[in-house]
Input
Amino acid sequence: MGTSARKRRRTPAKEPSWNSSRLEEWGLSRGQQRLLMVVASVAGVLVAVVVLIFAIGSIGNDFVPERATTAAIATQPRPDAYKGWVSPKLFAPIAQHKADPTPLTLKDVFAEKVLKEGRITLRLGATKLDAGCSAAVWGQGLVDQLAQAGCTQAARGVYASADGRYIAQYTLLNLRNTAAADSLVQSLTALHRGGWTRSLESGRAHFPLSGYTEASGHAMGHYAGLVWIGRADGAEPGVKDDFVSLSLAVRGAEKVVFRRVVAAAPPS
Output
């Protein structure tokens, strides 16, 4: 039995909703919030964003795509649990890259150096913006899929909690369209065993190679956001660890996507 097979499985958490106070905290004006409500209403959905639900493992705990090299798997940290979520209709205005052609910048995505959720406070340690996306990930299967998805940018940021207990990394991928983003986050259910984002390091903010971590993928129009979190010491979460708040905190980087929805669907 492999090491990953011995990891205990975690039950899914309920999916919290995002309300107007959340959007206000993220810097959206009241007018922008109303516009998002209209966009969501027209699409037939409430203004809500699917948040991290840490899954019960992927297909077969010992499954590794055959295209992943043994050397890469042995030297690159990867999540032990992953769950993917397709794009909500809220992001329909940016379903195509051509509707939102302005390139991402690190200033856009990681403008806030401190992110908070509940008792969790994250401080940004390092960022990196890659073009072409292949340099931001490992695993040939994942590299190939990103190429097929028309990935033009990968923005990564790594955070450490103020108390030094947690580490979190957020990666935002700029893809061709919603179909490509949906396909990516779903395929990673199995693909993450043999390919994942490369970890950034900054002081104490780094993922231990053999430590326990969890991840999720969130399609948002033509973007895909990858969340990766864990304890800094690599231990599995205990009863006092709030991984839901940790994931919500690092997803604060996604406010750039909400602003692009507003820009792509201005008030009439």
The chain is about 30% helix and 20% strand. The chain has one domain: 3-264. The CA atoms of residues 35 and 268 lie 10 Å apart.
